[in-house]
C-alpha cells in the first residue's frame, strides 16, 4: 500500500464541515501545548523574571506564529503528514522525525499523567496514583468510543474554554501590576534566552505543532483551496495558547509582585492558593487536570499519527496503539513517580532543540519540492518568515545548551 493510499484510509471519523474540523484541529494543538509543563514553566519563570517575562512571551508568540503558519501550510496544502514529506525530501529522515517525536511525546506524557494526578489531588484530595490511573482511563475511553475523532475534538474544545475561564478568574483576583507588565513587554529589565527557547519549545516544539496539522489532514481539509482556513486556524491556535499564557502570567505575577515566595516543590498550586485561598487551590486543580488530560489525549494521538503511514497494520490498529501509548505512559508514571519541576522545564527546552530538524525539512519542501505540494506556488514572504524563525530557533537552541547542562547538573 502506498503512502497516499494509507493516508486516504487513515480517517478516524468521516470528514466534517470545514469550520468544525478546523476548530477541532486548532484546539487540539492549543490544548496539547497547554499542559502541566506549560503551567509549571510559566509559574516558575514569572517568579524568576517578574513582569519582564512579558517580553519573553511576546517574542515566543511571534516566533510560534511564524513556525506554525509554515508547518500547517506545507502539511495542509500537501495533504500528507510531516514524516511522509520528510521522507520525500531525504529518505529515512521521516523515520528519524517520527522517532524523535514519539520519544518526546512519551516523555511529556509521563508528565501529563502526573499533571492529571496533581490536579485531582488539589481538586478532591485524591491519592496521586489513583488520580493518574482514573485520568488515564478517561483518555482511553475517548479513543475506544465509536467516534473517537469527534469525541476527541469535543473534549479538547470544552476543557480549553474551562481552563481559560478559570485562569481569568484567578488573574482578576490576584490583582497583578498590569501597567508594569505592559511596559516590560517592549522594555524588559531582563532578557533570558533559555526562557524564550523553553516557551517556544513548549508551544510548537516536538509533537505539538503537528497535533492540529495531522488532525486537519484526517478531517479531509487539505489542498490549496483550503489555504485561507488553514492559515486562520494555525494563527488562532497559537493565540489561544498565548491568551492562556498571558492570563496565567498575570495571575502569578499578582502574587509574586506582593512579595510572596512560592513553594519550590509545587509553585503553581502555591500561587493559586495565595491568590484566592482554598477556592484558588480547587480552581488550580480543575485547570491542571483539564490541561493535563487534554495533553494526554493530544500527545498520544499525535505520537501514533507519526507512525500510521509506515505500516498497514499500524493504521488498522491505530486506536488500540493510542490506548497502549497511554497505558505505557501511566505505568511509567506509577513507576517513576511525579515528574519533578526541573524535568518538566528541561523537557520543554529539549523540545526547542528538536524543533529546527522538522521545520527545516518542511521548509525545504516549500522552497524546492513543489511536486510534493501539487505544484503549489509557496508565498515567498511566508517562506522568508519561516526561514528567519528557523534560524532563530537554531540560535536560541544553541544558546540554551550551556544553560540546559547547568540546569541538569
TrEMBL record:
Its main location: membrane. InterPro entries: NRAMP_fam. It is found in: Membrane. One of its GO terms (molecular function) is cadmium ion transmembrane transporter activity. Signal peptide: none annotated. The chain crosses the membrane at residues 20-39, 45-67, 88-110, 122-143, 155-173, 193-213, 234-263, 283-308, 320-337, 343-366, 378-398. PANTHER family: SOLUTE CARRIER PROTEIN FAMILY 11 MEMBER, TRANSPORTER PROTEIN. This is Mn2+/Fe2+ NRAMP family transporter. It comes from Actinomadura namibiensis.
Amino acid at each position: 500500500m502506498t503512502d497516499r493510499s494509507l493516508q486516504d484510509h487513515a480517517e478516524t471519523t468521516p470528514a466534517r464541515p470545514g469550520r468544525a474540523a478546523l476548530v477541532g484541529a486548532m484546539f487540539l494543538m492549543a490544548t496539547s501545548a497547554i499542559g502541566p509543563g506549560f503551567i509549571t514553566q510559566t509559574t516558575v519563570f514569572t517568579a524568576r523574571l517578574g513582569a519582564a517575562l512579558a517580553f519573553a512571551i511576546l517574542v515566543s508568540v511571534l516566533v510560534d506564529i511564524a513556525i506554525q503558519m509554515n508547518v500547517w501550510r506545507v502539511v495542509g496544502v500537501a495533504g500528507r503528514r510531516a514524516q511522509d514529506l520528510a521522507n520525500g525530501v531525504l529518505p529515512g529522515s521521516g523515520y528519524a522525525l517520527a522517532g524523535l517525536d514519539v520519544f518526546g511525546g512519551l516523555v511529556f506524557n509521563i508528565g501529563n499523567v502526573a499533571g492529571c494526578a496533581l490536579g485531582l489531588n488539589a481538586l478532591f484530595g485524591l491519592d496521586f496514583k489513583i488520580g493518574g490511573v482514573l485520568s488515564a482511563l478517561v483518555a482511553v475511553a475517548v479513543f475506544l468510543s465509536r467516534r473517537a475523532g469527534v469525541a476527541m475534538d469535543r473534549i479538547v474544545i470544552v476543557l480549553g474554554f474551562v481552563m481559560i475561564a478559570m485562569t481569568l478568574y484567578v488573574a482578576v483576583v490576584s490583582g497583578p501590576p498590569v501597567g508594569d507588565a505592559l511596559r516590560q513587554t517592549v522594555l524588559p529589565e531582563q532578557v533570558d534566552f533559555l526562557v524564550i527557547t523553553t516557551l517556544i519549545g513548549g508551544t510548537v516544539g516536538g509533537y505539538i505543532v503537528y497535533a492540529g496539522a495531522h488532525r486537519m489532514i484526517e478531517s479531509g481539509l487539505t489542498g490549496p483551496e483550503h489555504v485561507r482556513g488553514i492559515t486562520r486556524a494555525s494563527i488562532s491556535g497559537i493565540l489561544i495558547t498565548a491568551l492562556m499564557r498571558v492570563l496565567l502570567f498575570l495571575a502569578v505575577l499578582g502574587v509574586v509582585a506582593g512579595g510572596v515566595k512560592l513553594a519550590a516543590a509545587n509553585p503553581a498550586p502555591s500561587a493559586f492558593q495565595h491568590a484566592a485561598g482554598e477556592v484558588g487551590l480547587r480552581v488550580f486543580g480543575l485547570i491542571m487536570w483539564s490541561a493535563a488530560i487534554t495533553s494526554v489525549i493530544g500527545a498520544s494521538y499525535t505520537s501514533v499519527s507519526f507512525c500510521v503511514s509506515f505500516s498497514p497494520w499500524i493504521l488498522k490498529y491505530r486506536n488500540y496503539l493510542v490506548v497502549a501509548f497511554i497505558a505505557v505512559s501511566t505505568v511509567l508514571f506509577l513507576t517513576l513517580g511525579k515528574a519533578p519541576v526541573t524535568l518538566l522545564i528541561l523537557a520543554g527546552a529539549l523540545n526547542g532543540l528538536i524543533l529546527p530538524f522538522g521545520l527545516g525539512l518542511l521548509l525545504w519542501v516549500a522552497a524546492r519540492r513543489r511536486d510534493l505540494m501539487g505544484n503549489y506556488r509557496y508565498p515567498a514572504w511566508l517562506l522568508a518568515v519561516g526561514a528567519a524563525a528557523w534560524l532563530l530557533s537554531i540560535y536560541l537552541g544553541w544558546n540554551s545548551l550551556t544553560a540546559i547542562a547547568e540546569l541538569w547538573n
